[in-house]
Amino acid sequence: MIIAGKAASGTGACSLLWALESLDCRGGRGVQKEIGKALGGRLKTLRLAHGLTLQALSSRLEDQGVEVSEATLHRAEKGTCMLRLDTARAVFNYLGVSLGYVDEIIAEAQIREEVDLTNRSFEDLMDEGRENGEYGDYQRAVQLFHAAQERLALEAETAGDRLGEALLCEADCQKRLRRFRLA
Fold first, then answer.
1. What's the confidence (pLDDT) of residue 73?
2. Hey, which residues does 116 pair with through a beta bridge?
3. CA-CA distance, 178 to 98, in Å (whole number)?
4. What is the DSSP letter of 116?
5. Are residues 67 and 141 in the same domain?
6. Is residue 1 part of a domain?
7. Which distant-in-sequence residues (6+ apart) come within 8 Å of 58 by Cβ?
8. What pLDDT is attached to residue 72?
9. Would you state the pLDDT for residue 22?
10. Cα(61)–Cα(28) distance, integer angstroms
């Protein structure tokens, strides 16, 4: 089976709650792993911007009644451990960012649902992408246009014009998706 899928911008309104409540310190795969890495990277960046060590952050959070060890913070920064929602809220609030900001990080890190390329032609993927775009599901349309590009890459023939068509459709949906997010 051939699968296509890459990181994408998502719009999941409740993605933060779902992601943080459903993950644990055993690490995850796919979406969970990407979210963990993205949140961990931002956590480390914010901690360092405040000039805090892991020990100092842990100590200051403990002073506020939030018990989180240095080891847990370190694993969270590496993306191998997700903090509980209440802990994540306290950590990011202490570092001066809201959960809305954290939700944006998660939305950026979400991985698209995988598209099975087996027995699917370029034309099928493009048609389905256009249909999704017409119904306003721009994120899924972009995913399908990207999968169409990957399908072309797997074909032996030169596909210059067809690739251009897929790129134009993907760019159009990306533009509409940005406009939709701004509204």
1. 93
2. 3
3. 22
4. E
5. no
6. no
7. 68, 69, 70, 73
8. 92
9. 45
10. 26
Assess if residue 2 is contained within a domain.
no
Q: Judge if 90 and 51 occupy the same domain.
A: yes
Contact 104, 9 (CB under 8 A): no
| pLDDT at residue 19, rounded to an integer | 45
> Are residues 19 and 95 both part of a single domain?
yes
Contact present, 24 and 72 (Cβ < 8 Å) = no
Same domain, 103 and 140: no
- Tokens representing 53 are 């060590």
User: Over the stretch 121-147, which tens digit does the pLDDT of each residue have?
Assistant: 888 988 998 898 888 877 778 888 878
Q: What is the C-alpha to C-alpha distance for residues 39 and 33, in angstroms, rounded to an integer?
A: 10
Terminal Cα-to-Cα distance of the chain (whole angstroms): 39
At residue 156, the pLDDT reads 56
Residue written as token pair 């719009």: 11
C-beta of residue 43 within 8 angstroms of C-beta of residue 83 = no
Provide the pLDDT for residue 39: 80
**Domain range for 62:** 15-109
Please tell me whether residues 102 and 131 are part of one structural domain: no
For the chain, list residues with pLDDT below 50. 1-28, 111-112
